Amino acid sequence: MTVRAAVAGASGYAGGELLRLLLVHAEVEIGALTGNSNAGQRLGALQPHLLPLADRVLEPTTPEVLAGHDVVFLALPHGQSAAVAEQLGPDVLVVDMGADFRLKNAADWEKFYGSAHAGTWPYGLPELPGARAALEGSKRIAVPGCYPTAASLALFPAYAVGLAEPDAVIVAASGTSGAGKAPKPHLLGSEVMGSMSPYGVGGVHRHTPEMIQNLSAAAGETVTVSFTPTLAPMPRGILATCTAKAKPGTTAESVRAAYEKAYADEPFVHLLPEGQWPATASVYGSNAVQVQVAYDEAAGRVIAISAIDNLAKGTAGGAVQSMNIALGFAEETGLSTIGVAP
Amino acid sequence: MTVRAAVAGASGYAGGELLRLLLVHAEVEIGALTGNSNAGQRLGALQPHLLPLADRVLEPTTPEVLAGHDVVFLALPHGQSAAVAEQLGPDVLVVDMGADFRLKNAADWEKFYGSAHAGTWPYGLPELPGARAALEGSKRIAVPGCYPTAASLALFPAYAVGLAEPDAVIVAASGTSGAGKAPKPHLLGSEVMGSMSPYGVGGVHRHTPEMIQNLSAAAGETVTVSFTPTLAPMPRGILATCTAKAKPGTTAESVRAAYEKAYADEPFVHLLPEGQWPATASVYGSNAVQVQVAYDEAAGRVIAISAIDNLAKGTAGGAVQSMNIALGFAEETGLSTIGVAP
Amino acid sequence: MTVRAAVAGASGYAGGELLRLLLVHAEVEIGALTGNSNAGQRLGALQPHLLPLADRVLEPTTPEVLAGHDVVFLALPHGQSAAVAEQLGPDVLVVDMGADFRLKNAADWEKFYGSAHAGTWPYGLPELPGARAALEGSKRIAVPGCYPTAASLALFPAYAVGLAEPDAVIVAASGTSGAGKAPKPHLLGSEVMGSMSPYGVGGVHRHTPEMIQNLSAAAGETVTVSFTPTLAPMPRGILATCTAKAKPGTTAESVRAAYEKAYADEPFVHLLPEGQWPATASVYGSNAVQVQVAYDEAAGRVIAISAIDNLAKGTAGGAVQSMNIALGFAEETGLSTIGVAP
Amino acid sequence: MTVRAAVAGASGYAGGELLRLLLVHAEVEIGALTGNSNAGQRLGALQPHLLPLADRVLEPTTPEVLAGHDVVFLALPHGQSAAVAEQLGPDVLVVDMGADFRLKNAADWEKFYGSAHAGTWPYGLPELPGARAALEGSKRIAVPGCYPTAASLALFPAYAVGLAEPDAVIVAASGTSGAGKAPKPHLLGSEVMGSMSPYGVGGVHRHTPEMIQNLSAAAGETVTVSFTPTLAPMPRGILATCTAKAKPGTTAESVRAAYEKAYADEPFVHLLPEGQWPATASVYGSNAVQVQVAYDEAAGRVIAISAIDNLAKGTAGGAVQSMNIALGFAEETGLSTIGVAP
Q1: Hey, which family's this protein in (chains A, B, C, D) (predicted)?
Q2: Would you name the residues of A annotated as active-site residues?
Q3: Which of A95, A147, C109, C152 could cysteine-pair with C214, CB 3.0–4.6 Å?
Q4: Per-residue pLDDT tens over the stretch C74-98
């Protein structure tokens, strides 16, 4: 193993998923694991599925504990990453799984997060145009949000070749782990099983400006995004249903060709054969992305749908994939395209 | 009890839900129950939740068995209702829970169902403009599809007052009972639990022309509809997320006012207080519809969301409500706005 | 309506289910609804499925608020009922849905609940021998625990006729609503979906002495009980699998006969036809109990299995049924044997 | 890679899980994949989660197709393995994931399976006393049933040291994948979600004699088993709750010591720290077994509970583990103790 990695926020869902992946990563040794309210507890009590780490004990998230690692992953609440990152020095690779450094526009940050903008780091969605180049050798990585990962991969190929109008509608269903491990009444099993419900409707969800940023970059013009997230009765997975009016001259063939070209060489994004549609179960636990696209001639619309595992490709898998690029490892190291199903 | 009702197709999910409702309907006596492949079986083996009917035995679906009833409900596969209805005579109230008589445009029927159009009956969605008048005294009722019920109730108020552009995007999640009781591999519990997946994407779902019909009537102009149904890991419920570009001059207030006006006097449609959003769990087993609407100024869009129970208001409840109107009973007879939750 | 009922603890799952039932009870008018931390909130925000009560506001649980009712239901945390009941006067029917007055043996109470024993009230499981007589005219009712309801109804017929050895093994699976609405990490949807797990293993669950009390009374000798509760990934329902060694001379016929006799005239307990087994889905939302029993000759054991809805027959339905008896209403008033399925 | 493996029955759940494991097994190259009704289909359509094999096409299950492999895994319906195995020659390692060669007693086979007994092969549950020695170098392996795996690992340590009476009660909850991929009405998602139900009650389930065989061997006397399987609303996992009367002199300490000794050196069986109980979610997708045990002094019973993934350790993982032993690979090759959670 060639690098030693610390995980700040190891007791939550993102931290747990990251550890699941790092345990099988050939180039990574797992170093310090930290928590705040959970410091001092055995990991076996908090993450009982990570048997090889059961006897590890969480330490507090301090500069001393995080010092001496080659990589530090931050799985912290939004707004806390900047202060920790500052103390880590410029030679440590810091991978922020929070939102702090994703947005380029400070005004967007302030509007959606209500605090001062900390800055912008290279964006960890390697499949976007130019993203890999920015990640190579970088010592700072902003891991994308789970919804923007799903939605951007569904729609950017259409915008990249200019076949869709800049007015996207995105409706996404997420498993409950996306809402985190802090107990809240509406996240109780009794409430979520058997129920679909929306939240953050009307452009107020914090992932909206991130989608706009990604799709506008691909389109070369400002794309408006109507984004509606919904909570689905499953632990993991995002299904993003995305549509935009087709520009004149679009055909089913031109749509298909755009997606085939975009994903011909991508190791993790799988454009399904025509007629087969994504299912979140198929990417459960894997870093794969299933994508399918259709052209609805009667409605004049492109419909692109993606399925990801929100914790894997949507968070921890995307983090590892980006780390691999930044450190010069093979991009697929420690990552799998094999789901756990049924 | 003033009328005697037969149910053709009593072994399926729609038939079972209808019986659940008729068992507590003060004006209805349950008469013949028929099936085809299940004729001769005890209902207790097929619908074990309907304890009071456990010892009833299914009869074959024949004119002789269905004769002598005041009302005949048809819960048959698409395309079979016309032949049965013809044999029942003009004085019997025939309530078709299938698709056969929903569409006005014969070409739409032929395109989406691939057979000859049987005709058009009064449409059993009383909340639509003019629908109650057409149902009163009618001896024939076409019960709407479950998705069109959810989507039409979410969006028609916006079209009725002319505040939305005629280009609707509808993404709906349905519980698995909407796919029926015939065993198919993709409907196995092992496949659906933990998974969200789309189907019928790109304008090919049969409920699409029905939505277009309803929304166009409300708008007074042809509305195109991009409809994407998704299968959700729950037995019941539809959550319909619907959006259309707002016409110039639209404000959050004008949107709210349109919905308040549309639903001020409706017994089953509940426009939620601002800030509260629908959840399918809240209408589980009830005939209620939860609706909420938002205006996303940045995207220039109206977003309207509804939750229904696909088997209740979406099928059997809608059928009973329409029957009540046709027969002059109080519209709420035998129907409830109380869900079973959690 | 002939009585006015208050519900203390209207914001929780037991309180919500009780209101669902009282809303359709022909003899009950719903009076004050109280909560503690939720006092002042609209019920529509807390119990969005109870549409007819959406605009009711919760009041604090005080003697003043609860005064002036014929019936007061207490859905309070264990240990709080005695103090409230004392203030209500001897002419008010107090129905305690908590544990405080279930146990006859003060030492059991102290061992399992760790506080002083408040006393013993008539026990609200009418199907047990002698229970109805004790409930008639009573002004105090102790509603049983959900697990003891399921297990006692599964096993007491075997003990009542002396065909089972006094050493019962009970393994029960419960939906998550049994654990209440207070948010705890292990009850998050992310944790419970896809998982079965036991808790309170080894005789430490508080419902154990209540089962011993019921089964011993039926047997006329002390029955030991090994009880293991498990948490199942569903919102509602209890499936209790119960077994005891058969006494010499037992046959499949004698077992069947004992259960047929016990439940021949019970309105809510349905002994299934031979070969059909209970399912919690079949009693979802209903007050029915499905029971089936088998004699395993090779193992020399009687296996009795019951399914109930933990919130209905297991809590609020049992409360209403007992209230009906106490007040002289028809026992089935406001209660249904029709489940909501699928 | 040192061996080439064929999988007969690659379209089902057991076959799919096996391929998931073999894809990451360092010593195995995946050879022919066969099906019967599905021959000719792309694996990507049948097992969409196995992305690296998406373009493989199923072949028919014939001797010609299976020839030329070092290992042949049989995931066939019960009763079909013997005929296929005969054609494979004595030098090929045949791993039967069906039931055909599990039972030693021909009369048991005939009683429970209704056909002639094919024989007995070394039993693929390495944790049982003597099992590893029988597997080493063997060319035939009978993979245990999923329930016997869970139950035997929960209870055999108690029997091996003679602290439990030979009268075991086993109640187990299984995810639906245990029932296979053939579509049947009672396995529909609509039926299983939200429902717990028993089946095969009263000693008639085919896994009963296998449990008796394992526990009797450990006890050195005939153990009777009362086994009740239940279907739980989850895709994967078995939770087995097992109990037996303790022999005189048993203490909590002696119980704990027996389990600590039995599992001190087992790579896949994890005896949890005292106070922590198994959960199927913790072993989702892993080959790990979580075990916990308690002594209920009041009931005089040992209660042992295990959680496994029915498709992994319960079927395909157990098959790979046994293959590793038979072929002299490190036992843990290609297997993980890390679950996918939440």
Answers
A1: Belongs to the NAGSA dehydrogenase family. Type 1 subfamily.
A2: 146
A3: C152
A4: 999 988 999 999 999 999 999 999 9
Q: Which chains touch A (3 or more CB pairs under 8 A)?
A: B, C, D
Look-up: residue for tokens 């203030």? C87
Q: Residue B162: helix, strand or coil by DSSP? A: coil
Choice among B22, B131, B135, B146 that is catalytic: B146
Q: Alpha-carbon distance C41 to C18, whole Å?
A: 18
- Give CA separation, A230 vs A175, A206, C143, C336, in Å: 9, 14, 38, 34
* D11 interface with A at CB cutoff 8 Å: no
CATH 3.30.360.10 intervals, chain A:
147-308
Angle of CA points A46, A47, A48, to nearest 5°: 105
D242 annotated active-site: no
* Phi, psi dihedrals of residue B82, rounded to the nearest 5°: -60, -45
Give, in degrees to the nearest 5, the angle at Cα D130 between D129 and D134.
145
pTM equals 0.98
Residue D276 and residue A47: Cβ atoms within 8 Å? no
CB B188 to CB D193 under 8 A?
no
A235 contacts in chain B (CB < 8 Å): 194
Q: Residue C271: its chain B contacts at CB < 8 A?
A: none
Superfamily of domain C147-308: Dihydrodipicolinate Reductase; domain 2 (3.30.360.10)
Question: How far apart are the C-alpha atoms of D152 and B312, rounded to whole Å?
Answer: 46
Of D146, D163, D283, D319, the catalytic one is: D146
Q: Do D183 and B188 touch (CB under 8 A)?
A: yes
Instruction: Produce one character per residue of A259-284: b if its CB has 16 or more CB atoms within 10 Å, e if not.
Output: beebbeeebbbbbbeeebbbbbbbbb
* Average pLDDT of the residues in C134-152: 98
Contact partners of C by the rule of 3+ C-beta pairs under 8 A? A, B, D
3-state secondary structure at position A305: strand
Query: In this predicted complex, what is the ipTM?
Result: 0.97
The partner residue sitting opposite D239, judged by closest CB among C197, C236, C241, is C197
What does the buried/exposed string (b/e) look like for C81-91 if buried means 16 or more CB atoms within 10 Å of the residue's CB? bbebbeebeee
Would an 8 Å CB–CB cutoff place D301 in contact with chain C? yes
Q: What is the dihedral of CA B118, B120, B123, B128, to 10 degrees?
A: 140
Residue ranges matching CATH 3.40.50.720 in chain B: 3-144+314-327
Q: What is the CATH number of domain B3-144+314-327?
A: 3.40.50.720
Contact: C297, D203; criterion CB under 8 Å: yes
pLDDT for C71 beyond 70: yes
C57 touches A: beta carbon within 8 Å: no
Bridge-based pairing of strands D224-231 and D167-174 is parallel
Question: How distant, in Å, are the alpha carbons of A267, C18, D92 from that of C8?
Answer: 59, 11, 71
A240 touches chain B (CB under 8 A): no
Q: Which residues of B touch C54 (CB under 8 A)?
A: 270
CB contact under 8 A, B196 and A173: yes
Least Cα separation, residue A13 to chain C (angstroms): 10
pLDDT number for residue A1: 66
Q: Which residues pair with B4 in a beta bridge?
A: B29
Q: Mind listing the pLDDT tens digit of every residue in chain D (342 residues)?
A: 699 999 999 999 999 999 999 999 999 999 999 998 999 999 999 999 999 999 999 999 999 999 999 999 999 998 899 999 999 999 999 999 999 999 999 999 999 999 999 999 999 999 999 999 999 999 999 999 999 999 999 999 999 999 999 999 999 999 999 999 999 999 999 999 999 999 999 999 999 999 999 999 999 999 999 999 999 999 999 999 999 999 999 999 999 999 999 999 999 999 999 999 999 999 999 999 999 999 999 999 999 999 999 999 999 999 999 999 999 999 999 999 999 999
- Give phi and psi for C240, each to the nearest 5: -110, 120
